[in-house]
Task: inverse folding
C-alpha cells in the first residue's frame, strides 16, 4: 500500500458529510505518519508503513463512529497553547477564549499586578493555565472535581510549565481553604438536563458531568454567584461563560446577588457568551 492509497482508504471511511473530512483525515494522517497534509503529494508514491497505515485507518473508523477528533489526537490548541485531552475531559472550545479575553481585560483595566484568580470547574485547565501564562505574576487556583479531568488538569499545568497555577481536587460547591480572590472565572456545566440527549453525537461523547447544568441549566451560576461573593475582595470581579441564550437570566442572577457593573461579551458568532460583574467596593 502506498501513502496515497492509505490516505484515500482513510477518506473513504469518513463518509459523514457533516465533517470536513479532508481536514480531519489530514490531521489524523499527520498525527500517525508525522507527514503534514501539504507534503502529501510529495510522498504519495512511497510505500506506507503497514502498522501506521493500520493505525490511521483504525482512527478514521473511530472518528466515523463519533469519537471526537481531539480525543483521537490526544491534544488540542487553545489561545496559542496546547492541552492534552481525552475521554473524561471537556475539549477546550474557541468560545471559552472570550472568557479569557474578558479576564485579561479586567486584570489590565483594574491594574491588578499580582492578582489572585480562581478558575472554578477547571477541566483541562485551559482557562487557568492560559491566565497563568499570560499573567506570570498571578496566583491561579484551579478547582476540579472529576477524577479523570483532574489528571488532565495536572498534566496540562506541567506540560505548559505554569508553576503559578495550583490544581485543587475540590467540589466548587463546597469551597474551603482559599485566599480572597481578585478575579473569579468559571465555565461551569450549563446545558439543561433535558437537552443533553439531543446534543450532537460527538458532544455526547464528552463527560455528562462537564455538561449537565441541572433542570434549567443555571444550577452552577446560582450557587457560584451566591457562594463566592464573600470570597471575592471588594472591587473584585466574577466572570462566567454562558450558553448562547442564557445572558438575560444569568445577568439577573448577578443582580440578585448584589454584584454591580454587570456586563456581557459576545462570542465570534454574535451570541452573548460571557457575563461578568463586580463586588461593590463597599458592601
Ligand atoms: C463545561 S466544563 C469546563 C471545563 C474547562 N473549564 C473548559 O472551559 O474547557 C465543566 C467542568 O466542571 C467540572 N465539574 C462539574 N461539577 C463540578 C463540581 N461540583 N466541582 C468542581 N468541578 C465540577 C466538570 O468535571 C468539568 O470539567
Result:
Amino acid at each position: 500500500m502506498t501513502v496515497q492509497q492509505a490516505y484515500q482508504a482513510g477518506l473513504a471511511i469518513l463518509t459523514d458529510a457533516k465533517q470536513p473530512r479532508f481536514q480531519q483525515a489530514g490531521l489524523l494522517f499527520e498525527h500517525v505518519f508525522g507527514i503534514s497534509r501539504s507534503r502529501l503529494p510529495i510522498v504519495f508514491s512511497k510505500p506506507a508503513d503497514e502498522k501506521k497505515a493500520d493505525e490511521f485507518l483504525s482512527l478514521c473508523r473511530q472518528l466515523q463512529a463519533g469519537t471526537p477528533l481531539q480525543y483521537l489526537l490526544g491534544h488540542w490548541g487553545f489561545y496559542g497553547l496546547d492541552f492534552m485531552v481525552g475521554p473524561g475531559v471537556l475539549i477546550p472550545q474557541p468560545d471559552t477564549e472570550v472568557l479569557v479575553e474578558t479576564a485579561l481585560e479586567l486584570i489590565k483595566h483594574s491594574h491588578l499586578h499580582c492578582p489572585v484568580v480562581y478558575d472554578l470547574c477547571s477541566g483541562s485547565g485551559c482557562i487557568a493555565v492560559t491566565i497563568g501564562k499570560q499573567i506570570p505574576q498571578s496566583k491561579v487556583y484551579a478547582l476540579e472535581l472529576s477524577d479523570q479531568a483532574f489528571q488532565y488538569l495536572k498534566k496540562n499545568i506541567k506540560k505548559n510549565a505554569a508553576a503559578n497555577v495550583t490544581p485543587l481536587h475540590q467540589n466548587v460547591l463546597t469551597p474551603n481553604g482559599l485566599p480572597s480572590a481578585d478575579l473569579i472565572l468559571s465555565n461551569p456545566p450549563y446545558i439543561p438536563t433535558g437537552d443533553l440527549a439531543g446534543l450532537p453525537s460527538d458532544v455526547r461523547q464528552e463527560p455528562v458531568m462537564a455538561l449537565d447544568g441541572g433542570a434549567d441549566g443555571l444550577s452552577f451560576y446560582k450557587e457560584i454567584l451566591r457562594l463566592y461573593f464573600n470570597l471575592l475582595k471588594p472591587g473584585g470581579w466574577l466572570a462566567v461563560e454562558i450558553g448562547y441564550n442564557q445572558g438575560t437570566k444569568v445577568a439577573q442572577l448577578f443582580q440578585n446577588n448584589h454584584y454591580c457593573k454587570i456586563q456581557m461579551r459576545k462570542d465570534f458568532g454574535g451570541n452573548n457568551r460571557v457575563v461578568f460583574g463586580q463586588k461593590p467596593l463597599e458592601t
About this structure: DSSP finds eleven helices and nine strands in the chain. The first strand starts at residue 75 and ends at 78. The mean pLDDT is 95. Residues 34 and 65 are 24 Å apart (CA to CA).
